[in-house]
Amino acid sequence: MTGTTPTPTSGIPTTGREWHLVARPEGWPKPEDFALREVPVGEPGPGQVLVRNLYMSVDPYMRGRMNDVKSYLPPFKLDHPMNGGAVGQVVASNAEGVAVGDHVLHFAGWREYATVDAEHAVTVDPAAAPLSAYLGVLGMTGLTAYAGLLEVASFKEGDVVFVSGAAGAVGSEVGQIAKLKGASRVIGSAGSDEKVRLLTQEYGFDAAFNYKKGPVAEQLKEAAPDGIDVYFDNVGGEHLEAAIGRMNVHGRITICGMIAQYNATEPPAAPRNLALVIGKRLRIQGMLVQDHQHLQQRFVEEVGGWLREGKLHYRETVVKGIDSAVDAFLGMLRGENIGKMIVALND
Prior knowledge:
Blueprint: E1 15-21, E2 34-40, E3 48-57, H1 61-64, E4 86-93, E5 103-106, E6 113-117, E7 122-124, H2 140-152, E8 160-163, H3 169-180, E9 185-190, H4 193-201, E10 207-210, H5 216-223, E11 228-233, H6 238-246, E12 247-255, H7 276-279, E13 283-286, H8 296-308, E14 316-320, H9 325-333, E15 340-344
Parallel strand pairs: 8-9, 8-11, 9-10, 11-12, 12-13, 14-15
Antiparallel strand pairs: 1-2, 3-4, 3-6, 3-15, 4-5, 5-7
């Protein structure tokens, strides 16, 4: 039961730890750019809940928020807690409709305890799926894959699809959804032979290659002899140039991420073959997942069904402990994860 007065907070620690950004990275972030600090934990105010975070997400977009530049999300403030996706259990509630013991998805990660406005917390069911899945395959990354392929790239049955960063949380789901929706061929690139095997043997990609083993353009030409109709870009750089070269007429490109340049200190050269966009009549469109919330219910129903039927597979790389969150973030930027990088706080 919940009401307008806070539920008792006995047994809840008076302090908790949270990660602060203390310096803006130049190039690759360094551990000393971050600080793990102990802060007071108070009772939730009116309309708020106190959540003990169980899992938190680290994602490539967070690197951009560490720069003091205007973007679609405000930059992280120095000497303040960072934030990001997290799922946890409510330990105190001062909000109608959210009870102690409920599990909620929210955006106040990078900390052990989070005070969250109940209107910005989404109740999730741990019986329906593992809690960590709500940060990945059934969460923001999953919706990114679903919307980016089906809506932004206007995927249609019979398309040849190429996905870069294909062993990551978004890319692996893009390729599988494309196959389930009737793609004639799905190709992925990844950064290790182990990830390439995962793409073809577990995720059902028709072809995959290790981009570190040779020029992307040459490997893509061999994997896609008849060209590609859809390119889902998580990498940018050499991959984008190679994809433009292999696109068929009226091809569509979804620009989801450009992890190849997130830590660059100099602006990259644009793809040298951009003139091909004219003759091929290509459509190149950037995407932000928040523009596609209207697909949320359909996404959960369809992807949830595929998961229950064993038609869609996912991997997670789980790092344990709030102390390891920065290491997990840096490892994700280096491509050390397979699937979604998750930090488990309930260790």
